[in-house]
Amino acid sequence: MEVVFPTLIHSHRILTFKQIKDDLLKFIYEERKKDPVGVTISNEGGWQSQPFSGSSDNIVVSTVKDAVLRYFSLNKIFKEDTAIDFRNLWINVNGKGNFNMSHIHFGCDLSGVLWIKTSKECGSIEFISPNAYTQGSELDFYSHEIKERYNLYPGWAFTPEEGKIIIFPSSLSHHVYSNKSNEDRISVSFNMRL
Fold first, then answer.
1. How far apart, in whole angstroms, are the C-alpha atoms of residue 106 and residue 71?
2. Across residues 43-69, what is the average pLDDT?
3. Hey, CA dihedral for 75, 80, 82, 86, is it positive or negative?
4. What is each CA distance from 95 to 21, 32, 110, 140, 178, in whole angstroms?
5. How far apart (Å, rounded) are the C-alpha atoms in residues 50 and 56?
6. Element (H or E) spanning 82, and its range?
7. Which of 141, 124, 103 lies closest to 187 in space, CA to CA?
8. pLDDT at res. 78
9. How far separated are the first and last CA of the chain, in Å rounded?
């Protein structure tokens, strides 16, 4: 059996996250205080910041850019002459009952999320297989072992973890489940062009 046409989702941790977490949270809550309304895109409830450009000079932008560029460089993911352009970044603060509807990120190649503050049952992010419709019936007939070995599922969820970044194709449909905890789920989302 051969695996063809895979969808790559990159996942890694910021090793120094514990040292910068409090500074990130301070900056995020100050931003929300300056603009308590924020914007509504895919979020149902919660607060989403105005987007920051990739050239903005603040702790959120520099943390994401440094971590992402280091990951791609150290792991030799892309060809040597590949340039990464951070198009925009934004902050998400989702309290109890808040969630994000299913969406994609138009006009970009890769998108990602960095979780800053999480708690148990704060809501996972789920990606929908780009083949879910065309292979929907077929997927039902594979054995459990084959599904496990090749990740043959109509959707795949990641549990938020503080200091963890995931990067995925911008065209991959995804949604974030409702926060069932009493604490804020805080993340930073971003878009990149290659």
1. 24
2. 95
3. positive
4. 18, 13, 26, 36, 9
5. 12
6. none
7. 124
8. 97
9. 32
Closest CA to 111 of 83, 88, 82, 131: 88
The overall longest dimension of the chain from CA atoms, in Å, is: 55
Residue 23 CA to residue 11 CA, distance in Å, equals: 23
From the number of C-beta atoms within 10 Å of its C-beta (0-12, 13-18, 19+), residue 113 rates as buried
**Token pair 């970009």: residue:** 108
59-104 pLDDT, tens digit each: 999 999 999 999 999 999 999 999 999 999 999 999 999 999 999 9
Alpha-carbon distance of 8 to 17, in angstroms, equals 24
Q: Is 68 left (phi over 0), alpha (psi -120 to 50) or beta?
A: alpha
Tokens of 65: 């850019």
Residue linked to tokens 């934004």: 90
Q: How far apart are CA 60 and CA 110, in angstroms?
A: 18
H-only helix segments in 35-152: 59-74, 136-141, 144-150
Residues in the chain: 194
- pLDDT in the model for residue 2: 86
